[in-house]
Design brief:
The chain is an alpha/beta fold. It has 7 helices and 6 strands; from the N terminus they run E-H-E-H-H-H-E-E-H-H-E-H-E. Helix 1 crosses helix 7 and helix 2 crosses helix 4. The structure holds shikimate-3-phosphate. Shikimate-3-phosphate binds next to loops.
């Protein structure tokens, strides 16, 4: 895992699988820091003029990934901002390795079972999990993405605390200067 100097953090990037709470934790962390919050998926939806599911359905995943890449490039220049990426954004060679200076990356861990439970509770918003064998699909996707998520500077178990608690932990780790640690299930 790479380390980051929290004193020089100018943006926080939350990564992790679908349902790991990037958006809810990100909003709360932004509030604690008094920073802006930007969500990759929400930005893609406003650029495309439709929901993520509609983009997948009408234009295919490849088009979604192009839009996501473009949005990611732009949002990663934001200063004093908390960013929530989509679950698939880090899973491209080189992305986690070439984050701009001043970016603290945080991986929110979630189990495949809990990811699917949360995704279902939110309705049909995740096209990649819209199948009967969603847990199996989630397990496979998560496994493929682990090498990328693992490159984050800080890792938190999203099932260990509610979003407010996770946001506080990140905030505290920034202020006490321990921007490199792991809190994962034992
Ligand atoms: C995806 C995750 C989704 C969204 C799209 C694809 C993925 O974002 O970008 O459905 O590939 O994991 P969330 O992680 O915010 O659910």
């Amino acid at each position: 895992m790479e380390s980051a100097d929290p004193g020089s953090v100018r943006r926080v990037l939350l990564v992790g699988f679908m349902g790991s709470g990037k958006t809810s934790v990100g909003r709360r962390l932004a509030r604690l820091l008094g920073w802006a919050f930007h969500d990759f998926d929400a930005r893609v939806e406003s650029v495309a003029g439709g929901s993520v599911s509609e983009i997948f359905r009408r234009h295919g995943e490849a088009r979604f990934r192009e839009l996501e890449a473009e949005v990611g490039r732009r949002l990663l220049t934001a200063e004093r901002a908390v960013l929530a990426s989509g679950g698939g954004w880090p899973a491209r060679e080189g992305r986690m390795e070439s984050l701009p200076e001043g970016t603290l990356s945080v991986w929110l861990w979630v189990s495949p079972e809990e990811a699917v439970r949360r995704a279902r509770a939110e309705g049909a918003t995740r096209p990649l999990l819209a199948s009967e064998d969603a847990v199996e699909r989630a397990r496979k996707l998560l496994e493929e993405r682990l090498p990328h998520y693992r490159k984050a500077s800080l890792v938190l178990d999203s099932e260990s605390a509610p979003p407010e608690g996770l946001a506080r932990t990140i905030h505290e780790s920034m202020s006490v200067g321990t921007a490199r640690h792991e809190i994962l299930p034992s």
